[in-house]
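Worked Example 4.2. Consider the chain below.
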Amino acid sequence: MKRIVCLVVIGTLLAFTASAQDTTRKRSVDITSSFKPILRDAAKINFNASPPAADTSKPRLQYSVPNQHLLFPYQPGSLKPLALQTDTVGKWDNSNYVKAGFGSLKTPFVQAGFSFGDGQTAGVDIYAKHVSSQGKREYQDFSNTQASIKGFYKTAGGLEWNAGLGMKAERTYKYGYEPETLSFDKDSIRQRFQTISGRFAMRNIRKTEYELSYAPELRIDVFGDHLKNNESNTVLTLPLEKAIGKDFTAGIKVGFDLTRLSPDEKNAVNNTVWYVAPGVQYKSAQFNIQAGIRPSWDNGEFKMFPNVLAEAGTRDQRLVVQAGWTGYVRKTTYQYLASQNPWLWAPERLNNTWVQEIYGGIKGALGDHFTYNARFGVTALNNQPLFINDTSAAGDGKSFAVVYEDKMSIITMGGEVGYNVQEKFSVTAGIKLNQFSGLRESNAKAWGLLPMEFNAALRLLIMKDLWFKTDIFAWDGPHYLKKDATVGKLSGAFDLNAGLEFKITRNLNLWAQFNNITNKEYQRWNQYPVYGFNFVGGIVYSFAQKN
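Applying the procedure from the previous section yields the following structure tokens:
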């Protein structure tokens, strides 16, 4: 009953309260809260890369340093294909030139060189030269004419083919007769040589799947004089190498050298040499060791030669120690003898020289510009050709006869230094000392061989487009056999030459060459003095010269 009374009272109060509210007031809801919604910061990419760890190990680098002996521009020499970009209109880029001049001693000079091809897959070089002079002494004249064409072609299969054809014509006179009051018909003392040469070779640019490299080569020379003494020389070489790993190679080289000399109205002389040279080689950044043998057959006579070479040096090649023990057969031909002494009689026999050498030395560089090379060796020679004045016929000694020394030894000491600064400055100097010993009684001295040789060369870019060069040749005079069979010795020689070349236009240069400035008429061969002071000068025209 009490619960009912309470409910009635509460209901009455609620009804009274609702009737007492102000109905004019707008209804509203007030919410109070401390929460403030915000967006979360977006994640950003960190662009601050951490630095790499420092590499303190030294890299293993191998350098191939080219020959630092720079040649003066447009000096005679063999041309090689240049990287010439040739378009359809025949654009040439500093690879073709003509050099012409004239000088004292009635000396015309003409030289030309032309290169064609891209220099990468194919190329052809054409070279020609002619020079002649007339000395002050009667019949002291000479002329030299030569021309050659060489080419190469690389196939898509990785082969490179090389071929060449050349000719040379030389003329001089036997003016070294004594006394000078003697008189000769010009045709009777003329000495003229002609040479036609050919070469054919090929090699694989990329090694085969069995790591083989090969480069066969065939050379043929046809040589003769105006007296109908003719000679043919054929040389065939067949080298083959196989790589074994990274540092080792094994190889073999087979060579055939065939000569046939046909003297006028005399029996032909055959001279044949062939050899087989197997060997192995180890080559790394600091060591280069080659060991092998060279069994050879000289006209059927067998001779075993060693072929051991070794080099050890620092990793940067600043110091390299060399040593070797090697031997070979040096072929004696009429062509070779005439290149040494052009006033000789045609030989009636050809004896090849057996050469064995033991040597040691050092080479390397100091700094970035200075190079050096020093060597000491002992060489044993069999059948070394020597030259003596022939006084048996007319007694004037103007011709030379070839004699052979059965056995002799040469102790050789030599060295070379060089300093080079890009193409602006280079200087080289070298000396070679020879001590001849062990000769038999038939030859008291090494007739015609030089005991000492010295040479030096300087190339200097004085200023833009102005080049200067100078050369020095000196030697100690060789021994010769006098008419009374006693020993004579020629005086030493000193020959100083200098030249200039400077640019006039983009395609045209002027040049001048001064020879034997000291005007010393020394003798390389007994009774044959050289020219005194002489000079020659002219122009050089370069096609499409850019620089």
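The first strand starts at residue 97 and ends at 103. The CA atoms of residues 303 and 458 lie 44 Å apart. Compare this with Example 4.1 before moving on.
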